[in-house]
Amino acid sequence: MPIETRIHGVGGTVSETAVDLGAEVVAVPVRQGPVAPAAEVAGSLPFTLDELLALHNAKGEPGEITSAQVRVGDRVRELLLYGVGDAAPADLRKAGAALARRGKGRTALVAGVPTGDTPDALAAFVEGVLLACYEFKIGKAPAKRAPGTIAVLTEAGPEADAAAIELGTVRARATALARDLANTPSREKDPAWLAGQAEQVAADSGLTVRVRGEKELVEEGFGGLVAVGAGSSRPPRLIELSYDPRSAGGSGGSSPQRKQGDPRSAGGPGGSSPQREQGPEGEPERHVVLVGKGITFDSGGLSLKPNEGMKAMKTDMAGGGAVIAVMSALRDLGVRARVTGLVAAAENMPSGSAMRPGDVIAHYGGKTSEVLNTDAEGRLVLADALAYADAELDPDVLVDVATLTGAAKVALGLRHGALFSTDDDLAAALTGAGTAAGDPVWRLPLVDDYRAAIDSDVADINNIGRGGYGGGSITAALFLREFAGDRAWAHLDIAGPGRAASDDAETTRGATGFGTRLLLRWLAG
Hints:
By secondary structure, this protein is of the alpha/beta class. Helices cover 34% and strands 20% of the residues. The chain is built from 16 helices and 19 strands. The radius of gyration is 24 Å and the shape is elongated.
């Protein structure tokens, strides 16, 4: 659901701003140590800030908050001393999230923010605030609403702060969109619904869109999508969103036209960066294709999951949601690369028409796979999209993102995504972007010796690894590699961090939107 909190920069002092806004809360940053600031708002206290911090054994760590009451103007307000660590972007992201959570139930909050010489520090603070304010409720009102207004004061002043606040807001709202798409219950969210959401994003964001329905998927040979969706009464879709910086224009640009043909781009295999300076005639030199898994509900098919395993499966399209969300923000971020987003959307259900273990699927382009487990369906739909991108879209860089394997959760836990890549520079660029964005990933190996685990007796490849090899996330990545051609390709398995069981810093319980900020950071350069 849209984040209702608004953040803006102000001049003057914390006290003046609090009086003007009627803010119930004023916040002062405390650096690691702790180092008590010279805060004018504390002038009426009967003790020093150092004494208050010592009383509470505060350390100035990011996310730490110490409170007191202070008279500002004609009323008593809450004073929050909030830890910012070294005031690095990651510290301020966590600090902003803690401040936003503490401010719930209040209408307005005023905070000083130490941004120093780091241009992205304020943007990270804004991300933390807004993402911690995110809520997804259907019918039930939240116990305490997030603050409607948060005013920030920095050393640079409101004019200099405006661009950083806008940057953080764009990233946060894209992540919130990814969360909304994944959190929506599957009774409402079928492949057609997801395609409708993508069409609305295209209309709002200067994109072109093409949606292939079941008839086109059959006719064009998207066998994986057709097979996975065969068990459901709600047929699959392939969603194709296209962003071209030459036609997207600036914020508030013209409405897109529905795409009739298939996009083409010249250029060879890509390296680490998703974009370069434009050519002499304004042609973007690079074309990036993002592919997202869009399983709107995963029952496991005939290889049925137990009830506990299905409860979170409305979020099994989190990768596809991240791709749609990334596409929504490209124009606002001024991304110069040409970007195509593909979302392979299907519902994996058991029925008399469902695919069966032992079936052989012919994917886009003709490669075949034997289905040994119908619950390994995500790679089947991704295979079609990757093969289509390789054969028809001619990308320089190809990246897919998916809640793909429980094995990735076993390997890396719930905070890091698994990264696989055929290109070292691309892997390094994505890892760096993830660290900077707060979506950390860890590279795992594409072990060639494990390739034999997915050999099939009757088809080109099996959809799961045979016994004796282990490494389920690796064999899944090896399966996908078969369809990516010779492109610079990376696979992000976000099964662990794609959903959360509790609130933590800027992460909220439920879908997290993981991967959205990583890809936006990488694409924007």
